[in-house]
Amino acid sequence: MMSVDDFTFSLLGTEYPLSGYSDDSPDYSDGQRQHRRRRSLLDLPGHRRRSRSRSPQRHSVPDAHMSSPASQLAGDKSLSGQLQDRTFAKILQQIIPSDYNLEKYAEMTDKRKDIDRPQLSLTLMSANFRRFNARVGVVFVFQHRLLRVLSWKQPTHTLSAMVVYSFVCLDPHLLAALPLAIILLFIMVPAYITRHPPPPPSIPGKVEPYSAHGGPIAPPPEIKAVSEMSKDFFRNLRDLQNLMSDFSEAHDQIIATIGPPTNFSNEQISSGVFQLLFAICIAAFIGAYLIPWNLVFLVWGWFAISLFHPTVQDWLLSTSDSEFAEQEKKKAIDRFTRWVEKDIVIDETPETREVEIFELQRMTGWEWEPWMYSSSPYEPLSPARIAGHRPKGTRFFEDVRPPAGWEFKDKKWILDLASKTWVAERCVNGVEVDEEKERWVYDWVEEMESDDETGVRRPVQKRGEWRRRRWVRTVVRKQYQRREGE
Questions:
Q1: 128, 130, 181, 304: most buried by Cβ count inside 10 Å?
Q2: 3-class DSSP assignment, residue 322
Q3: Taking a C-beta distance cutoff of 8 angstroms, is the pair 158, 305 a contact?
Q4: How far apart are CA 361 and CA 393, in angstroms?
Q5: Contact criterion met (CB below 8 Å) for 47 and 41
Q6: DSSP structural state of residue 136
Q7: Alpha-carbon distances of 169 from 151, 173, 231, 294, 422, rounded to whole Å
Q8: Residue-wise burial string across 107-121, b where 16 or more C-beta atoms lie within 10 A, e elsewhere
Q9: Residue 396 — φ and ψ, nearest 5°?
Q10: How do residues 165-224 score in pLDDT, each as one tens digit?
Q11: 74 with 56: CB under 8 angstroms?
């Protein structure tokens, strides 16, 4: 068993050995060990005792010095909780940026936000971390035993596991009974043996046959959370630290391997990978039922487990074999790259569109006054004109902006000389087209006027109060830049 002396407690980059006590020492009673434990923890630099008047449920990031009477102690459980709160608060101070605003965080758009779940709270996170670390030991025990099986630490255990795997591969229906067998053999049978322990051997070294007769003589086993500041609690911290490191390294390695050929950073390579995967997907849809999957999983399972054998590992990591594997890998990549460069052509020309804006002018008095630049021609029969709404747009040409996600390619706007064409394409009625001068399209209205000689009123066609003409400009898709922090 590893004693607490082997652990070190890290606070803000400084390591402090917890060497003042050991639960395994036979020279101290339980009370003396508890007293020495409190003395050792209180002697940590920067640690300050809290009075009973301060509620243990109120925790904050300790930016300033807080003093309290040193003669009052809240007990070992309260002390360990306070130490954990201060430790986790210090760790979060290093993780969270100094300019981080929790109110701003609450306003951010978060697709994972759940109104039924509590929001970010340092106090709640500290308490949950202590609870989690006190109960996560069973996961690390399972991880440790699984790694021992995969790494051939006990060849009999590994071969037994592979025999079970072989039976499941040959008869997949056994997979339904496997969880029940695990519960019976690894949970209930050990629990029964704990309640009905075998008698001690009469002769040292002799194995007595186990007898299940008689009533229970021992308490049932219970899986309990380890106490804070115990050896198991620090072992869980150590294993959790190593697990986070392993996950981060595996995540970075997977992203570095899978990311470049699949994220279209090199469109030729990603297009080739897409075509290859698409062909395999179609072939799998058509002929997957022809493949004996139980034999495939059986062979590949034994092959994968064999790769973890120490002898095979030494052979794979030898210099000559490593160089051979690297050469074959390089040849395969070169063949794939040549095929991609030869057969896949990427269109590098950026996508372009033509945008339009209508210059509107209004008759005021006896002259035309520039009125607005609008995205709509504001023709006589438009819904906005019929509803009596005013045109929407901007007063100045310089204020016209390209659509979202686009940018102007040309430096200037170009007047559309084919006014009759765009009028016909839009099915604009009630207008007169000027095809010779400035290409204005006038409102063409009918009014009743009386004849000066006869006095008879008759309809007369004349230009209305609005005229417009169309300007065009070429836009190109805007190149997005990766924002900081993405």
A1: 130
A2: helix
A3: yes
A4: 12
A5: yes
A6: T
A7: 21, 9, 41, 5, 70
A8: eeeeeeeeeeeeeee
A9: -120, 145
A10: 999 999 999 999 999 999 999 999 999 999 998 888 777 777 778 887 888 889 998 888
A11: yes
